Automatic annotation (TrEMBL), chains A, B, C:
The active site is at H239 (proton acceptor). This is UDP-3-O-acylglucosamine N-acyltransferase. One of its GO terms (cellular component) is membrane. Homotrimer. The keyword Transferase applies. It holds the Pfam family LpxD. One of its GO terms (molecular function) is N-acyltransferase activity. GO terms for biological process: lipid A biosynthetic process. Belongs to the transferase hexapeptide repeat family. LpxD subfamily. The keyword Acyltransferase applies. It comes from the Bacteria. Its EC number is 2.3.1.191.
């Protein structure tokens, strides 16, 4: 798997400043790259690494950087160009991935498009419809009445419950669970009575679902994930959540039931969203913040406190518990000083 | 799957105000329900949606709301009534779910009750005992010496380690892991020596365990989950934790080792509990709070800070790190003002 | 499985104060242990339980405690001695664990050492190399080009992506996913373009990976876990993270991309680490703290606030949002008092 710089520069629609016949065979980070590797610089603060980099070629944005490297490909957005190039170096899986493994259990009522690859021990339930060129990894279980759009890839040991709809060109990573019951119970004489979860999960096109992420089915209506949404690992999405197109959810986020998230939002790692909230488009929440109210204005939001040494933090945390007293002290002082100033 | 309103009203022990022969065939949320659907109103703040709802019938609590809807069923607790009705509309699984799939691997020493359903590729280890009417989804692995109570349903790709005991009428969702080793290591010359985890996990009746939730086996004694406990997705329950009957644990909660939680407690999403704590009955902890001390009084508890715009939050967080200085400033001012007042 | 106290005391290199032929057949916690059980005391605050304990023998540190118990084994570090003894009482798995189950799917190009045990439905991909005495649980999927070191044990339903390298004597618990794609996307005209993740995951010797933990493959370079690292359940380790030898990561921790953690660090439950940070050796972070900056000094670090009753917490949290106003009030008071003092 190797390419000439001419091929690379055409692929990224960049301007080649160097040898068009120079061949690169893999990618490398700037400070580690070898002569047979292609690298990139997206953050100017690493510009000092350019002169010492052994990379065979570098994707750059500033013409002035071209002379510092062996070969340069000038592009408007080196990070995006790098993303485009990364696709060229994906190795095709070998082994099981040519067709349908004989150990796969396919229900007779399931339907299968052209070019479908099913790994060993894949289970496809009744009435489930798999579109063309879908790949499903070993041990993955698709229950009944599921629809999978074309070119979607599902890794090993994924579980999809009945009725889930997954769009085209999605990627679902190992251990993800889609369509499990939402957490719904009515109090009943000191115990909990289950509210059976009768909705489903509808996922758009070009969605990525991370490893061991869970997306619950709706209670009555569906849980809905828009097109182009990217979800990292170990994320919990509760019943009836709606996520708008192209929002990105980092690892360990938890979104409680019935909350609606707009388009092009980003939630940082470990963020928590309470239930029944409405978050408008283009909202960004920083890591481990807790959102307990709806957000109507685009922008960046945070909660939490800054890191400190534990002894100092302990004193601050104890003091914070008495902040109301401090406020009362200030009010009293203001009155006293006001009296003194009046007298004066 | 459709029912007359007479049937529905009998099932929920409600009073029908409308046509007893009117037929509903599914459930709908108030603002979306169609004439063939049944809905409910539990929160009075949605009462304004009643007049415009097209629902065929609505479970209501207030007699005055009856005239606003097509047909009404008067009940004391519409949310609980809705939970009861939801059970009527659960579709029976088709496909694999009639009996024991030939690909299931059952150890010759395992025992199996009547009416057991095992999906494709289920694995049942040595000496494991499955009671009557248990259903186990595809790819689920039960190791050795496990006991499963009657009518318990385990979804696909669940892993139960040896020795785990699961009560009757439980539901375990996909990806859940029960009986993995607790996180126990003794420091030994700069490295960690494993404390082998010799206890097990004992789970009561009517427990629900969410998708990708993990419950570790005890170190010496057992980890114990009481009857009627409901656990959401991606929850971590460490070794030797004890959870009292009918407590409910929301998604992404982490409970450290040997903590004891009382009955009828609720832990909000993302809550953390430190180890070796004792939490009394009827304690409620709000989302993402960290509990680092035992709680002896019932009530609601919280930690954390409120959400703000990131720039404003950043200033508050920086200021909080200096709150001790503020307290010192106040003390100094109080002394100075006291002196001034005395002089005055 | 039973041992004389002579055998036990030799195994832990302790001094036996009691009957060398006394037999113990299992372990028990101090207050519950029966005469046929061995217990230990590591925390002096439980010393009052010694006299009433029925344990057949107790691992102790203080000679003065010996007379309080039936038989004593004097050791320097009872907790470590207990860890060593716990190994004696691990039961060998029975059932499937004698050899390679006929339902295991092994690619013809995979290689297998001596004494390898593969449970039912294990899948081993092309060119994957399994060393001697490796045990792999039912339903676990190893993709292509994977290397597993000797005596490593992988539980049921684990997923390893292609190219992952796992050292010797590791333990990987059920549901763990190693080698899934890192969360890398470049913004592209309002959508996200995937950066294909071309690195892998390299894990050292004696590493434990908890249930449902996820470790992503690197984008270009590898994600690296050092020797002796212990990782609890539901931990997220993002692409290109590096963790130094003998660090321990508690449950529900999330570590964002490219962060480097030193040796012998401990991260408490639910801790979050932002990306691209550098944490030096011997850093300890308390539960649920968020680390957003590099840490260059060993020590203990924290963030967050203390638990309070919800009504009191609500007032403190509201006041904290106005802490900048409080600071301004103090500054104003200081000026006014300074003026008054000058006048006076």
């Amino acid at each position: 798997m190797s390419y000439t710089l001419l091929e690379i520069s055409k692929h990224v629609e960049g301007e080649l400043l160097g040898d068009p016949d120079y061949v690169v065979s893999s990618l490398g980070s700037l400070h580690k790259a070898k002569p047979e590797q292609l690298s990139f610089i997206s953050n100017p603060k690493y510009a000092n690494q350019l002169s010492s980099s052994e990379a065979g070629a570098v994707l750059i944005r500033d013409l002035k950087d071209a002379s510092k490297v062996r070969n340069a490909i000038l592009v408007r957005n080196p990070y995006l160009a790098f993303a485009k190039v990364s696709q060229l170096f994906v190795s095709d899986p070998q082994g099981w991935s040519a067709n349908i493994h004989p150990s796969a259990q396919i229900h007779p009522t399931a339907t299968m498009g052209h070019g479908v690859v099913l790994g060993p021990n894949v289970v496809i339930g009744a009435n489930t419809a798999i579109s063309d060129n879908v790949m499903i990894g070993a041990g993955t279980v698709l229950d009944e009445d599921i629809v999978i759009g074309e070119k979607t890839r599902i890794a090993a040991n994924v579980s999809l419950y009945s009725g889930v709809v997954l769009g085209a060109r999605c990627i679902v990573h190992s251990g993800a669970v889609i369509g499990s019951d939402g957490f719904g119970f009515a109090p009943d004489q000191g115990a909990w009575r289950k509210i059976h979860q009768l909705g489903s999960v509808i996922i758009g096109d070009d969605v990525e679902v991370g490893a061991n992420t869970t997306i619950d089915r709706g209670a009555i209506d569906n849980t809905i994930i828009g097109n182009g949404v990217k979800i990292d690992n170990l994320v919990q999405i509760a019943h009836n959540v709606v996520i708008g197109d192209n929002s990105a959810i980092a690892g360990c986020v938890g979104i409680a039931g019935s909350s609606i998230i707009g388009k092009s939002c980003t939630l940082g790692g470990g963020v928590g969203l309470a239930g029944h909230l409405s978050i408008t488009d283009n909202v960004h929440v920083t890591a481990m913040s807790l959102v307990t109210r709806s957000i109507h204005e685009p922008g960046s939001y945070s909660s939490g406190t800054a890191l400190d040494s534990t002894p100092k933090w302990r004193r601050s945390a104890a003091r914070l518990r008495r902040i109301e007293n401090m406020a009362a002290q200030i009010t009293k002082l203001e009155k006293q000083v006001s009296t003194l100033l009046t007298k004066g």
